[in-house]
Write a structure and sequence with these properties.
The protein has no helices and four strands. By secondary structure, it is mostly beta strands. A four-stranded antiparallel sheet has the order 1-2-3-4, with no helix packed on it. β3 and β4 form a beta hairpin.
């Protein structure tokens, strides 16, 4: 479960959840996979999958999906 405090729906706050899979991170080097979600159900929401390929900043998007249907749903308790 991810908890978002002070959730902002006006687009001024860009809260993102990142999941790292099969990853290795060291200074100036990163390998593995990353799944990123924008914590919103607005049209600016997204879900992206990237593969990190070693040198700092070297990655490839494997999939990019955008729109409110890809955002995370807020659950209030």
């Amino acid at each position: 479960m991810v908890r978002s405090a002070n959730q902002n729906q006006d687009g001024k706050v860009w809260e993102e959840v990142e999941l790292r899979l099969r990853s290795s991170v060291s200074p100036h080097n990163c390998t593995g996979y990353e799944i990123m979600f924008r914590c919103s159900k607005t049209p600016q929401a997204y879900c992206n999958i990237a593969r990190w390929e070693g040198p700092l900043g070297k990655f490839t998007y494997l999939k990019q999906m955008g729109g409110s249907k890809y955002g995370l749903r807020m659950v209030t308790r």
